[in-house]
């Protein structure tokens, strides 16, 4: 069973006549009553002072088979607690994700991505660093891809006791990969990147924010992930990190055969 309000959200309100809009507003405000009374079509027409033609106009535009299905869709909404506001918010979230994914796709620089892949390929050791707990799974996916492609790769958590030991043993043909959010606010990453740089190791920095100058000077290659901004809704940014991660994994897999 489909939702009346979900179908309604897919249609521009300008497509409805004035009488149809009156009907829709009545249905929004009185969905529970319409379902509870199993309101007959003539009663709905009378209550709204519209007419059968307006009701059937809505039925046609929502691609329903008839008035009985309209009632069934409304019943589904009432029982599931679905409202127009909920549907519109869901639609808004969906559109935000689609827009941001498109922005990330359009901002992809194939040359930049291939440079990252090439650096990974030519490195003697690749160290994928779990710097932020929220991005742990994404870091693990990347490391797993490297391991499966027979690239000598370590997965290391910044809290591991051997973290300092690995950095102290790094050299010029090692590459460290960091997935980060706003770590530029942290003095600790500045210290870690500085130590890696002093050992002439490479640093790949993948983040949703452009690094500050005090960090940027240590970075070999970077990619800035486009994230939604200025929103009234709180949107998780993990999907956008995952999107780039999937692109990167695909390129690595393609390069390694």
What are the key terms here?
5-stranded parallel sheet, alpha/beta, elongated, about 60% helix, 5 strands, about 260 residues, single chain, Rossmann fold, Arc Repressor Mutant, subunit A, 2 domains
Topology:
Blueprint: H1 4-9, H2 18-36, H3 41-48, H4 52-61, H5 67-80, H6 84-107, H7 110-122, E1 125-130, H8 136-148, E2 153-157, H9 163-168, E3 174-180, H10 187-198, E4 202-207, H11 213-216, E5 221-224, H12 238-256
Parallel strand pairs: 1-2, 1-3, 3-4, 4-5
Helix pairs in contact: 2-4, 2-5, 6-12, 7-12, 8-12
Write a structural description.
Helix 2 (18-36) packs across helix 4 (52-61) and helix 6 (84-107) runs parallel beside helix 12. The chain has twelve helices and five strands. The radius of gyration is 27 Å and the shape is elongated. The chain has two domains: 4-82, Orthogonal Bundle (Arc Repressor Mutant, subunit A); 109-256, Glucose-6-phosphate isomerase like protein, domain 1 (Rossmann fold, 3-Layer(aba) Sandwich), CATH 3.40.50.10490. A five-stranded parallel sheet has the order 2-1-3-4-5, sandwiched between helices. The longest helix has 24 residues, at 84-107. By secondary structure, it is an alpha/beta fold.
